[in-house]
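SH3 domain-containing protein: structure tokens wanted.
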Amino acid sequence: MMTRAISSILALALSLTAAHAVEYEHNGSLVDVTVTEDRVRITYLRPRDGLRRIGVRKGTLLFEGKVEPLDDGGPYVEGMARLFKAGCQPAPYYVHGAFRLGKAFQLNGAAPVFAKTGCRNVDNTYEGSNANMKFERVASRDPGQKRVTQNKKRPGSLCVANISAGGTLNVRSGPGANYGRVGTLEAQDCNVAGLRQCINGWCAVMQLSDGTIGWVSQDYIRSAQ
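Answer:
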């Protein structure tokens, strides 16, 4: 019943933003963010000079993904972004983040690192503007569109567990202890939403107090119920 209720909330939220497009500024470029049902596409409207010099044009795809529900019913988006280099095919990489059309948002992931020469991917990084893609709203094409608000003050679906009083749980940029730390959660903190994705004992979560999104070990979280 709970899963059905969450799905109903998400369906309502998506119906209010179906086929709407909003212009955003991203890293010096103007982009178009379009939501159609549960799909999200981000394309360039006016690429910055550096991107134009390497062939990025109006309409070039930057990101394509899907809106999914948080455990508290709010939407987030996940999918594949693309990194560009002159003379190379766009390099795809997975990103995700809390999302609401018309509001500023950020998508995070492990961005590819190209070799200094050629098109070989030699590394990945969780730092910089490609790994932490920020989108600031510029203008909406549909000023009359309805807004769906989210109550961020209500408790999340998860609590920090098995951490001594006064201790903290590291929030990582990826599903493993080898990934960099993006934040911490205090012992017994229950203001945490699960993002319904776990890999090899690590789960994606969002700290509702500040919107931090990352991965924590499944051994240190429990249901808030």
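Residues 1-18, 140-155 have pLDDT under 50 and may be disordered. Residues 95 and 109 are 4 Å apart (CA to CA).

Cheers.
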